[in-house]
Amino acid sequence: MNDFNTSVARGRSMDASVDQGLRSFMLGVYQKLTIGIALSGVLAFAAGTWDPLTALIFGTPLYYVVAFAPVVLIMGSMFFMKNPSPTGSAILYWAIVTCIGLSLGVYFFMAEQSMTTQTAGGITQSLNYMTITKAFLITASAFAALSLWGYTTKRDLSPIGSFAIMAIWALFAVAVVYMFLPMLGIMEPSSGMEWLISGGFALLSAVLVAWQTQELKEGYYQLAHDGRSLAVMTNWGALNFFIMFVNMFRFVLMLLASRE
Q: Would you kindly state where each structural domain of the chain is located, as residue ranges?
């Protein structure tokens, strides 16, 4: 999904940050992101507190569909959406938002039941609604600051962004391997490894927030007169931002829940 943004964002026009068209475009991305976050929050709350939906999502094999669908959709989009349309990219965005929102319901279920649980690596977590609220506010504040910096900085963030993309895919591969090795009895689950993986995703996502903002800003000037491409880029930008936001939120929540 980042290939689309990268391919159109090589003309550096850093002195036109006050352009009204750019402002409208960026507001469109943030608006779609905000609606996506709100929808995922509503779905998470419903999945964690409404018994019929809780039983359906977390008590049947549907859980695995919800949990792994975002990864499958993202990987599939790299092969089947070489020339994405506004409709196709929008469907992809809302599908991923829906699946991730439902999967986040586990946090509301834990808060509703006042549960104290342990992760596979042995990290003890205790969640309540205040913890979730604080994690959301911290994540939203950090996200806004990073995106503002990416929008205003005159520094070229392309090298940092390229490194972060490669690193996050490498970390994803490590996470997949780590998920299966304990199941095969090759290694014991490790809380340190869980912290490393979760923290790595959060840190790299934070870097990518700033980079993605700059890429969207510059991409706008390349496609300012191409409404179709701008619509697609709005969906890609919102999707990338949404995934980064969720990665950061999960780590902050994990950090707060393990202390309270």
A: 13-257
